[in-house]
Amino acid sequence: MSMLWQNIQFKMLRSGSRINLLIGINVIVFLAVNIPAVFERLFLGHDILTAYSNDYLLLPSYLPKLLTRFWTPLTYMFMHAGIFHILFNMLWLYWMGQIFEEYLGNKRTIGLYLLGGLSGALFFVLFYNIFPLFTQTGLVNGSTVVGASASVMAVIIATATLLPDYSISLMFIGPVKLKWIAIFYVVIDFLGVAGPNAGGEIAHLGGALFGFIYIKQLQRGNDWIGAIIKVFKPRPRLKVVAKNSDKNSNSLPRQEEIDRILDKISKSGYESLSKQEKEILFRASKDNEG
């Protein structure tokens, strides 16, 4: 048992992957909430723990309640409604997150997850307080949203925007390019904004929009997440000022060169890069992880 716990700690904290950390946090929160709730139902016959966690950790759409639950735009993205809900969210986060970190390093992963979730929360609250479907029917008064789906959608769409022609194999389908997966999910979510899970679908779209805009801005040289990181780290992480024109294999790549390579990946895929360009991207990623 101790060996298992050590392996889990290594995966979460020392493997270098922020995806493993995020998955670990989601699983720990899910178990911490639901295991006691199962015992409560078995021995006491009521669901007080579940009721309190839903009341204080899920994101409400009703503005007066949101003002007294101001922390829920953060907590809701680590809560889940059931075992299959967390299972599929974590699987997609793992698959797409591994690709994202492979090409952009691991320093942006947590920022993308959190900002994608916050964008989903913003969309949910705005839609439910603006559109008559929710305001005139009273749905705004008692609706909540739960789950990491908006954050996961931000990772999915960001990865697909960065590497649209990158292919992954899906069961029963075969190789599928990321751009088609992204389009499929966005269309499905849009068609569901007036359905029974409207809140969830709206939050998905908010996360997806942030993931798309973030990568487009990154390709233009505007790294929003990197800018937030620099607030806490005064030394630039990626920008390097060369004092002479001589270049060698140990020098760090310039920001303009990195942006050009990322733009080439988004247009033609990773395989279109030359050996030298792959090496430059590799060295930039290593510097970003340091």
Question: What attributes does this structure have?
Answer:
two-stranded antiparallel sheet; 4% strand; 2 domains; two-stranded antiparallel ribbon
CATH superfamily descriptor of the largest domain: Rhomboid-like
Task: Tell me the fraction of residues in β-strands, as a range.
Answer: under 5%
CA(first)-CA(last) distance: 32 Å
Low-confidence stretches: 242-249
Gyration radius (Cα, Å) is 21 Å
Q: So, CATH architecture of the largest domain?
A: Up-down Bundle
- Please indicate the count of domains: 2
* Widest beta sheet: strand line-up: 1-2
Which structural class is indicated by helix and strand composition? mainly alpha
Largest sheet: 2 strands, antiparallel
One letter per element, helices H and strands E, the order comes to HHHEHHHHHHEHEEHHHHH
> What's the number of extended β-strand segments?
4
Mean pLDDT: 85
Q: In which range does the helix fraction lie?
A: 55-70%
In CATH, the topology of the largest domain is named Rhomboid-like fold
Number of H/I helices: 15
CATH level 1 class label of the largest domain: Mainly Alpha
- Quaternary organisation of the protein chains: single chain
Shape descriptor reads globular
